[in-house]
Amino acid sequence: MKICFATNNNKKIEEVKSALGNDFTIVSLEEIGCREELPETGDTLEHNAFQKARYVKDHYGVDCFADDTGLEVAALDGAPGVYSGRFAGEPRSDERNVDLLLSKMEGKENRKARFRTVIALILNGEEHAFDGVAEGEIIHERIGTGGFGYDPIFIPNGFEKTFAELTLVEKNNISHRGKAVKALVNFLK
Question: Is 3:27 a contact under the CB 8 Å cutoff?
Fold first, then answer.
């Protein structure tokens, strides 16, 4: 099955391709000719995921799925949440987002956090949603060079390594996106 993943984030595409295996061919936005920035103006992960998927379906006529992911930090009342990608403002910068989060966490004892992903699928005229959550905590400094976003400062529950220290296979087995993708794959099969 060939399906478009409505993202321009090559690291996300890598993660999802790895999780989907050989049963599916992922087509990128670039491959369908979409070079514009997809809209993300919602105030929930679900809204943003469906907004992106509907945009691709409406403008390119392609069945697709889109995701939106947020890091929800307990000590920050769930922030940055839906604004995780642009936490430190425009232009988007993983480096600045992590710096801002670490500064806001200074002196906080409660380090609990969770990543949450929502995948919106539009297939054969029907819409479906899948989600995944990874519970963990925010550490005090970056560790690891893999992954992207907040991965170097997030240790998932039951592990002693950050997402940025795990292999792609290890991360996909336990991550928020990996869980949402598994639900998507189970549905598609």
Answer: yes
Question: What are the φ and ψ backbone dihedral angles of 32, each rounded to 5 degrees?
Answer: -95, 5
- CA separation (Å) from 131 to 105, 125, 142? 27, 20, 27
3-state helix, strand, coil in the chain (%, to 5): 40, 25, 35
Tokens representing 102 are 């670490």
Distance CA 11, CA 17 (A): 10
Per-residue pLDDT tens digits for 118-152: 999 999 999 999 999 999 999 999 999 998 999 99
Catalytic annotation, residues: 68
Residue 85: which CATH number?
3.90.950.10
pTM of the predicted model over 0.70: yes
Report CA 21 to chain centroid distance, whole Å. 18
Number of domains in the chain: 1
